[in-house]
Structure formats: C-alpha cells, structure tokens
Design goal:
homodimer, 444 residues, MgtE N-terminal fold, CBS-domain, Tetracycline Repressor, domain 2, three-stranded mixed sheet, 67% helix
C-alpha cells in the first residue's frame, strides 16, 4: 500500500479497510509510511495497529516521529508499545529522546526493567554493552534436551533470539553455547553438557562495537554473547544490530574520507547549520594548507612569465596527482577496514604500489605526450610533462599507501588520510616537481 | 594458536598435540593460518582436521590455497570436503576454480547434486539465483506441529538454516513461512496452516543481489526465499551471504568513488598489471578533460602576466571547489545507497545544499580575507577571492548533489559521480569564475 492510499482511506474514514490492509503489511513498510504522514494521521494509523505490530512498527520509526507519537499516546498505549520492545531498543529510545519525554517512558516501565535499563545506559557509547540486549535463553548444563526444550518454550517468547542458547553455571558464568538445531536434532534424554560447544567466542561489555561487528562477519554468527570481567553472561548482541553497526561504520568512513566530521544523525535529520559546521573544519584546514602550494608557485613567477603555457598544465598535474593518491589511499583504507591488509603487509603494499605507479605513470606520459605533440608540436614540453607525470604518480601513490598505514600505526582512523588531505599534500609535491623539472629542462 | 606454533608442532612432528589444539579452534581462525602456510604444510594440517571441521575450514579459505589443496587431496578426501559444503558454496567454488580443476571436483559429486549445480550455474552473476542455496526445510500446510518437528529432525542436518521453514504446496508453490520459534512455542496438535505467515517477502531468481541485501537490512530477516516465475520455491538466501554482498557492494562503491574500475578479487590477489589497468582508464579520461581547464587558463594569459600573484591562488580555488563537491556528492551517494535519500527528495536536497553552501562559502571567504589582508594588505585581492570562494562552493555543492541523482535517474551507479569526476568539472567552473571575477574587479 502506498502513502496516497493511506491518506485517502483516512480521509474517507474507511478505518476497517485500512486496518485490513495494514495487517497484511510488514512493520518496516508501515513505519516508512508513518514517517511521511502528518502528526494527526500518524496517531490515527498507529491506534489501528494490533499491539504486536504497533511495537514492531515503532521500533523501525525515525526518532522525530517517535517523539511526536510518545507525546500523543496515553500511558496505557505507551505501555503496550514498550512491552513489545526488546531491552536494547528501549535503551536506544531513551538515549535518543529529549529529557522531557524520558520520564513519560520510564513511568510505564516496570521497576525491574528500569533497573536493567539504568545498568545498560552506563556503558560507553561505542561499546558492546551499549548495543546488547538482556533477553536471551539461559540453560543449565545438567538439563536434558527435553528440559531444555521446556525452558525454551517457557521463556522463548520474551527472548530476542532462540537460535542460540547459553549454558550458565549457578553464578551465571558462561559455560557453553548450544544452538537450537543441535537441541532439536538430539535425543530427548541427552544431557546439554555433552552437546554444548565450550570453545566460545565472546566479547566483553567494553569491547568496541566495530570489533564486535567484524567478529560477526568473520565467524558467520547469528548472535554473540557479552560477558563481564568475571565471565558472567550479561547480554547478547544479535546479527541485525551488528549489521546496523557495520552500516554506520561504513557511513562514518565515507564521511571521514570526504573531509566531513562524522555525524550520528541522517542527512535530513541534520540541520543546515550542523551540516555547515561538520564540513567547514576540514575545508578551512585544507584551504589554508593550499597556501604552501601557492607560495611555491610564487617562487617560479619568472618561469611562467617566460613560458606562460606552463600555467595551463597546473590543473592537469594537480588533478592527476590527487586522483592517483586517492586511488591508492582508498584501496588501502578499505583493505585495513576489512582486515585484508594488515600492518605487517606494509612493504608488500609499498612494493606493489610502486610497480603500479610506474606502469600507470608511463602510460599517462605517453598519451599526454601524443596530445602535446599534436596540439603544440613542442617536444620539450612533452618531455617535461612526461617526467613530471611519472614522478607525480609515483609520489602520490606512495603517499596514498604510507599515510593511511601510518595513521593506523598511530591508532588514528586511517579514513582521515583519504583523498582531500592526500590531494593537498600531493599538490605541494607535484607543483614543486613540475616547476623543478620545467626550469631544469627548459633552462629557465 | 598462532601460525608460528603450528609450524613448530609440524616440524617436531607433534601431530597429536596439533590435532588437540586445532580441535579447540574456530574454523575461520584455522583457515587464516592455512592461508599463510606453505603448500606441503597445508595438506598436512588439513588431513589432521575432523571431517566436519575440514569442510567448514575449506569454505573459509582463499581461492588460490583451495586450488592447491584440491590438487593434492585424494578423491575420497575431496568427497568428504564436498559433502560438508552447502550448495551455494559448492557453486562458488566451481565458478572460482580454473577449468582443469573443475572435473576433479565434479567427479566426487553425486549425479543429482551435479544437476542442481548446473541449474545454479546458469543464473546471471549478480542475481539472487547465483547466491542462493537449495538446502532448506520444506513443510506442508496440513502438517501438525509435531509432524513438522519430525520433518525438521529428519532433514535439518542438511539444511543451511532451520530457523525459517517454508510451507510448500504439492507443486512446490510457496504458501507460507514459519519460523522455528513459532513452531516450538505452539501446541503439538496445532496445524501449520494456522500458524504460518502468508504475507511473505520473497525475491525472484533474477533479482539483483544488491537489492536482496537491502531487503535483509530493511526487514531484519535471517533468510529470504527465492522463487521462480511461477512462484515455486527454488532456494533460499541466508543472512551471512547477504552480509558478504553488502560488504562487496561497499568495496565496489569505494572503488568507483576513487575512480577505480571495480574488481572482484582482493588487493593482494590482483596482479600489478591488473591494478594498473583498473586505475588507468579513469585517470586518462580525467587527465584529458583537465585540458579544458588548461585552455581556460591560457585565455587569461594577459591577466596573470599583469598580476602574477593570481596564479598562486589557483591551487586553493581548485582544491576548495573539489573538496566541497566531494563532500556533497559523498553524502548524496551514501544516502542513495542506503535508501535514505530518494529521487523524490531532489529539491529538498538541493535547497539544503544551497543553504549549507552559503554558510560555508561566507565562512571560508572571511577566513581567507583575513589571511590575505595580513599577508598582502590587498583588499581588492581579498574581495576577488571572497566572491570566487562563495561562488565556487555553491556551484560545486550543487554539482555534487545533482550529478549523483542524475546518474541514479539514468539508471547508472551514482558512485561514479564522486570526487574525481566532480573535481574535474568543478575545476573548469571555478577557474572560469576566478578569472572572470578577477578581470572584472581588477579591471584587467
């Protein structure tokens, strides 16, 4: 169903038809429609949804619309929504909402849950603890398969996943994991201890959520246990949350690589002023650094006064250098992000980039040489530009490979060493190379 | 266990100790070690692994090492490995291996499986069909929960996931899906038809795998059914494969945005020659296009002959324009990739970018003006550069927003409209603006 149809049904008060159509839709799709409706329509549509669907739809909605909705819902309605949310989504909600809304949310949450929420809110923003949920299936190692199944049937409805179950000791130390497949495919009288996997990959509450996401990618898990310092199981992270982390990290890398300060909110949710602020810092730094390139040019005033044509090739030299540097740095940054390239590979990468540079540089020099000969019949100029191109390509590819790896070594994010910064550095080098080569060969 | 320890144990022929240590490791970690070992050691370690572990480890290994291993394994050993692989991994393997290795693989696969593999190999490279597996749990709608559980126990071991089960009619039309949680939490005598979800999101075999991955992200699925034109279920795609597609798409976007032709293989697996080839096409195009910028400069020879200082600011104007354009295009390209920005938002985005441009442009003009006044005490120059900066920032941000969206409209990948291309276009505009403003204000 499209948004226009929803509006029409609302206008004509065909609530029953709307209800039927909504019941056939996925919550993710309903939320997309709600995010686009006006405030009064949202509450009307939301009230038509079944309790289960309302909760799920709410969890997919954007934060500004959620805020409006919470203001309009009665306490009883809000309680129904909160009951359907898993603990990690509840915590996210509370973190997102302005402080005048939070008390209304907390009021409808049980005392026990409020305690858990307070614990979860204490974890640092980028930690595993901040994205985990506390609703999982815990088993004991002395249980039989039949007893385990009984326990799953009892608490399964409130668990975020039943795919992986966690075997805990009396004091909640994580002793093993077992997935539902192994339970279902085993005989009823078998003991969990004999079936469970004891070689467990777990993370601590403090671990960086980016590292957590990488573990999902590497080991193909559906869920990952989170333990405290005493190895007590305190929560789990499910794969859908890990995917969100991966996507956020990629967006952050893209932003950093385009000289933008990373921003948690989406494009439309960010104000014009905030957008300007996020972009201006790096622009200022880069603008002022380009004064170096300018001052190098000033030193060669006599050269381009003698051969004004030299100035016409500044954009080509600078552009090619920037592009070559950004090609290398992008490949290296992405390789480091996916762990394909590691610090120990630095010489291997450098050697590869140098060989690529020479091939690329020679090809560009030849094509450009042909163009110069056709356009200006000036072999001296063709040689000057050829040598400059090969040198610029090599220097920029070496910088494009060394700078991100140096950043990694210094425990900085390699993504800041991307196109904009490298371009500015390469500009200095290439202009210097260009005029140096030109003045020596042309005898200026 | 680290690779050094494995080498030492191998050298001292402590195979039993090695076997014990390996049995405690995850297959993904064993594969990392195997990928680094020499050929003779790999086969030795691989033969120590249990049948199940050998299959899983094999599926994580890199393709050049897998090729070497297949050459060395006996037919019986290879059969054991192939038995452990799911159909989608088998198809991937056959597609990756050189043609002289493929017959050895096919020889150990049963006739029936060979037929399925041939069917799967026919799907286009980027289609849902090419990444799906045919091993899933099929139920009938007349089954009771107890009968369904029996069926799961019978065929579960060979299914890639038992989390979602598929309810099919006699002629294998997909009628519903039901997940294991709903089966386990329902009474034994309930009928599947009354429990299953009939409002199903499925994809066809021809659907683009990138769109498939987006569905996983949007709906938080663990698996997605793939149907043919008659709505018959032919396979499923699991979330781990969807994550791989997402990661590959991101890498492809990064490559396109850095003016590199996308490449399926990893950084180290790609030869120097191939790397050069992938990078050179765009470099040539961009290098030759920069001739336009050069020819504009040539037209203003008289202006910079009169005021040589004008040349010194070419890098700053070009650099700032390129950076502003790349900021906007990166945000738009990423927004389009995550579906946060849609075509219908074009005016909203444009309006936002224009307002951001004015803020950013004014800020840069002021800072630069102060610098010029301190360094050169030349108010005319400060005004020329100020106007040029504001105009350049605005033009480049408008281009950075319109070009990716136009590409999307023309069904091209927006990622090609990133920094390198935009920078080259912005260069032309900014240089033209710069000299136009300079000549009018300075009366050159």
């Amino acid at each position: 169903m499209e948004i226009e149809e929803v509006k029409e049904l609302l206008e004509n008060k065909k609530f029953n038809e709307l209800k039927n159509k909504l019941s056939e839709m996925k919550c993710a799709d309903i939320s997309t429609i709600l995010d686009e409706l006006d405030k009064e329509s949202v509450i009307k549509v939301f009230r038509i949804l079944s309790k289960e669907k309302a909760g799920m739809t709410f969890s997919y909605m954007e934060s500004d619309m959620r805020e409006k909705l919470i203001q309009d819902l009665t306490d009883a309605e809000l309680k129904n929504v909160m009951d359907e949310l898993f603990m990690d989504d509840t915590v996210d909600l509370i973190e997102e909402m302005p402080s005048n809304i939070v008390p209304k949310i907390l009021k409808v949450i049980s005392k026990e849950d409020r305690k858990t929420i307070n614990e979860l809110l204490k974890y640092p923003e980028d930690s595993a603890g901040s994205i985990m949920t506390t609703e999982f299936i815990d088993l004991k190692e002395t249980m039989t398969v039949e007893q385990a199944l009984q326990r799953i049937r009892k608490i399964g409805l409130d668990s975020e996943t039943i795919y992986t179950c966690y075997v805990l000791s009396e004091n909640r130390i994580l002793q093993g994991i077992i997935n539902i497949k192994d339970i279902l495919l085993s005989k009823k009288e078998k003991i969990i201890k004999d079936l469970m996997e004891t070689n467990i990959i777990s993370v601590t509450t403090e671990e960086d959520k980016e590292e957590v996401a990488k573990k999902f990618d590497k080991y193909d898990f559906y869920a990952l246990p989170v333990v405290d310092k005493e190895n007590r199981l305190v929560g789990i992270i499910t794969i859908d949350d890990a995917i969100n982390v991966m996507q956020d990290e990629v967006t952050e890398d893209f932003e950093k690589m385009a000289a933008i300060q990373p921003n948690e909110d989406g494009y439309f949710e960010t104000s014009v002023f905030k957008h300007a602020k996020n972009r201006i810092v790096w622009l200022l730094v880069l603008m002022l650094s380009s004064a170096f390139t300018g001052s190098i040019i000033t030193q060669y005033e006599e050269a381009f006064a003698a051969v004004p044509l030299l100035v016409a090739f500044i954009p080509m030299i600078m552009g090619t250098g920037g592009n070559c540097g950004s090609q290398s740095s992008t490949l290296i940054i992405r390789g480091l992000a996916t762990d394909e390239i590691e610090m120990k590979d630095i010489l291997k990468v450098l050697w590869k980039e140098i060989r690529v540079s020479i091939l690329v540089g020679i090809a560009l020099a030849i094509v450009n040489g042909i163009r110069i000969m056709i356009q200006y019949q000036n072999i001296q100029l063709a040689i000057v530009l050829g040598i400059t191109l090969i040198a610029t390509v090599t220097v920029s590819k070496i910088l494009g490979c060394l700078l991100p790896m140096t950043a990694k070594k210094l425990k900085l994010d390699p993504a800041i060493m991307a196109a904009p910064l490298i371009t500015t550095l390469v500009d200095v080098c290439s202009i210097l190379l260009y005029f140096q080569v030109a003045t020596s060969i042309m005898g200026l």
